[in-house]
Amino acid sequence: MTNSGCILEMYDIRKEFPGVLALDRVQLSLKKGEVHVLLGENGAGKSTLMKILSGAYTKDSGEIFIDGNLTEIMSPAHAQELGIGIIYQEFNLNPYLSVAENIFMGREPVKLPGIIHWERLYREAQTILDSLNVKINARHKVESLGVAMQQMVEVAKALSLKARILIMDEPTASLSNNEIESLFKTILHLKQQGVSIVYISHRLVEIFEIGDRVTVLRDGKYIATTPIEQLTRDDMIRMMVNRDLDDQIPKVKAIIGETVLKVENLNVNERLKEINFELHKGEILGISGLMGAGRTRLAKTLFGAEKIKSGSIYLEGREVFLKSPRDAINAGIGLVTEDRKTEGLILDLSVKQNISLPNIKRFIKGGVINFKKENEVVDEYIGKLKIKTPSRNQQTLFLSGGNQQKVVLSKWLCTDTKIFIFDEPTRGIDVGAKTEIYQLMNRLTANGAAIIMISSEMPEILGMSDRILVMRDGRIAGELSDKEATQEKIMNLALGEPYEAAV
Predict the structure, then answer these.
(1) Domains and CATH numbers, the chain
(2) Residue 503 confidence class, pLDDT cut points 50, 70, 90
(3) Which of 72, 85, 90, 489 has the fewest Cβ atoms within 10 angstroms?
């Protein structure tokens, strides 16, 4: 039954959660020293299959063979003993410990029983980090790092396990182009050493660069396994979504109206400096820039989560003082955060609770919650955004990344939000869900809403923006109209060069 050329084989894997058949007779094989890409829309079952392989979930039925031997993976610790390591899309780090402690947590080198060998701990952690070509001090606390650097710590942690089978779930979602290039070099080095990699990504361009074979899942079912050289990008999309996506960034030009937001000489400590711009009704204002340029800090400042040192913010011509997110919400500003897991959702609560919580006053009359009205509104947005959930009462924790993002969007759509701030709105979301998010943004602007869209995806910035602001070192480095904007001009501004040089 087993393929002698494979280090891993999974046959007829089935997994069911309450009300959801997540995997239905799925199969996957992995050869020694290959990068096997696992593709599928959000909710297709990719992460569930990998959690079974890594010991986080127990399969309901099916068989797993490692090195040709039938194996029952009992726990994450058992998976590690078998040489299986995993880098999850969402971080699993303790922010209050050092980078080195996170990398070797539970496996710290010791001088004597109970006494950690701290110098060896830091030295070995730094060696791994240096091999990734990232500038991270192993002694620094994780909380001092940005999202991209935290992702690289996760990579280092997995590499420290000396895994023979390495699972990478969206490892580049938060990385810059230079960091992605460095990661790919590491992947190539691992392949040459015989390490086998299961690679999950929604960035199809990456797959052709590093993939050897591709397995596609759809709606929890196995579709096909094909060598990468036999596939085109369109082939992959059709297999994933069972339809053609001719226009994956379906920007619809809205009627641009009056100014709804004006920012003058905004300063936030030394991190945002002399920020000036306007946002108009019906407009999508894209904000581009490299990691650490200040984009997310600007978003949080406009949402009242950062203290302003000086400067003014005007909404519809009236100066406002946004001292807290509640002030921003009351003023009609909503923020779809970059990190939906920790900042956008309460994962242990239901879909219904997450959608209605910011809007609970809407359902209260005489001190009593009108549950019928609450259910009707929640069901309306589950339908409008096509949220895949067995019911409104399903824990948000069990939804796929794309559907969790739709829950975040729903809670703002329920409010009287006039200005939407989208921070990396399609991070970690498949091509089908991306198109749905873009169509939603078009509907919002058509109805007169204004959108600030922060994105590291160049096609997204170029395809969806009416205007583009480029940030660098906490400042706005330049502004481009949708007609004049190109990738070269944006990158030159982000790097500190006049964009005319790219013409």
Answers:
(1) 6-241 (3.40.50.300), 247-332+417-503 (3.40.50.300), 347-415 (no CATH)
(2) very low
(3) 72
